[in-house]
Specification:
CATH class: Alpha Beta
Largest sheet: 5 strands, parallel
CATH superfamily: Response regulator
Shape: globular
CATH architecture: 3-Layer(aba) Sandwich
Strand content: 25-35%
Structural class: alpha/beta
Distance between the termini: 10 Å
Number of domains: 1
């Protein structure tokens, strides 16, 4: 039977990929104030690098990232992680694709409190941003 334990002092890492500087910096400040570690990048290529090198716990990505989109980050990531797609474009096909890939799909503007609740839910962090680790305890 697995049990989640909190690793004190090890903060959850959020990767934000959004080409809009105001959105990116606003989300970065918001999550940093909540004591999450945040990596914020503006391009698909930088997002791929950050996914590979930084081992984020969750991805928050815009749909439109130049010639690619946030869904490409999910598909090309070798390690599946919880993902939230945040976009200003209502597109039922992209939304269906995102949900098929296991991602949440939110339309901007998004309430910061609602986004925080969703991040905590996706990470299983009801109490805060510290990393948890599944362990098995044998009797």
């Amino acid at each position: 039977m697995g049990h989640a334990i909190v690793l004190p002092g090890v903060t959850r890492r959020i990767l934000i990929v959004d080409d809009d500087q105001a959105t990116r910096s606003g989300l970065k400040r918001f999550f940093e104030r909540a004591t999450y570690e945040v990596i914020a990048v503006s391009t698909f290529a930088d997002g791929r690098i950050a996914l590979a090198e930084s081992a984020p716990d969750i991805l928050i990505a815009d749909v439109r990232l130049g010639e690619f989109n946030g869904l490409h980050l999910i598909v090309t990531n070798p390690r599946p992680i919880p993902t939230i797609i945040v976009t200003g474009f209502a597109d039922p096909v992209l939304e269906a694709d995102a949900r098929h890939l296991g991602a949440e799909y939110l339309l901007k503007p998004v309430s910061p409190a609602a986004l925080m609740d969703l991040v905590k839910q996706k990470l299983g962090d009801a109490d805060g941003p510290e990393r948890t680790q599944e362990t098995s305890l044998d009797d």
